Amino acid sequence: MSTQSLSLSQARRIALAAQGFLDPPHAVPTLRTFDRTLARTGVLQVDSVNVLQRAHYMPLYSRMGAYDAELLRRAGSGRSRRRVVEYWAHVQAYMPVELWPAMRHRMDDYRGRRGKWFTVSEGDELETALIAEITDRGASTARELDDGLPRAKEHWGWNWSRTRRMLDYLYMTGELAIAGRNSQFEIRYDLPERVLPAAVLDQPALSKADAHLELVRRAARSHGVGTVQDLADYYRIRAGDARPAVDALVASGELEPVQVAGWQRPAYLHREARLPRRVRARTLLSPFDPVVWERARAEALFEFFYRIEIYTPPERRVHGYYVLPFLLGERIVGRVDLKADRATSRLLVQSAWSEPHAPADTAAELAAELERMAGWLGLAEIVVAPRGDLAPALAVEVSSQAA
């Protein structure tokens, strides 16, 4: 049997459809809209950077449009009605609560490596004390529980106490779960039985092989089409561990081997993937959006070379500090360095750049998208700095819209 061939354009359209960019808009996004979107993305990567909007809110905006950010808080609160919980699913991410059993093998693995964090005697004492304290007082932050011992100034200059390190360890092993975060974005830790639905906690843990099978299946559904490396990265599985899962899904007919034009590695198409004739997307993507978070895939799929430059010294940055790709149709046609200046209610476009294949209406379409984003963020004005080849035309379009 010959292997099906896909053009790069077909692969892009399949990938964007799988990620929810064909879903019909709801005039006012609801929890039902949220559920549909989460089913597409699978996870929402969490990041602390708040120069524009925190990363986990952005993929929802990119697919649902302007929505009430309270939806995510509601989806991640309560016990019986909770839809998502934080765990190391891609990296730190919101994931559907039903994935908890598929993560238990990771929790067991971390439990076997406690020596990375603590000596045996030190760890036993602190672990017992913290679990007892949280059991008694309920969901708490590391600061509230801190035992006041001297702090080590390590890890990019942050101050990490022994309490925080133990809480992180207990979260990674599943002894604690994340109940939510406070207004300072600090994690509130609690017992899993007070965070997760009983029906989830009562499910048996999946074996490592079965967990990999389920995670690769979900990755394939979210990607639509991808290589083994793409499918492994989605839930941070080693490629060697993902390969048996891919082979099993091919054997069952859930995945079909395909060849994508220009890709050196074989790819796999999910049997439920849609190939639309056209994608009419127009949105900005977070640097941590599943469409672009794996930079090699973004380059192979969109011919878009992308590196986030937050940790690059200012004098060495090419495009800016917090740069968002601009998706128009099925192509990424530009990028903008954005900042929400909340004190002055301005959306600052600190630079704007076009891609070589950008159409003539890129500036006008981007200006309309920036207007939508500013409205979502509650910002009254858009200010375009004169940096980047797209900036002059964009400034004209923004001024025209404001007039």
> Given the C-alpha coordinates, what overall shape results?
globular
Largest sheet: 5 strands, mixed
Give the helix/strand class.
Answer: alpha+beta
Spatial sequence of strands, sheet with the most strands: 12-13-14-15-16
Strand content: 15-25%
Helix content: 25-40%
Low-confidence stretches: 153-159
Tell me briefly what this model is.
By secondary structure, this protein is an alpha+beta fold.
Architecture overview:
By secondary structure, the protein is of the alpha+beta class. The protein has 15 helices and 16 strands. The strands form five sheets. A five-stranded mixed sheet has the order 12-13-14-15-16, covered by helices on one side. Strands 1-10-11-9 form a four-stranded mixed sheet. A hairpin with a 3-residue loop joins strand 3 and strand 4. Helix 2 crosses helix 3. The longest helix has 18 residues. The protein is globular. The protein starts with a strand and ends with a helix. About 2% of the residues have low confidence.
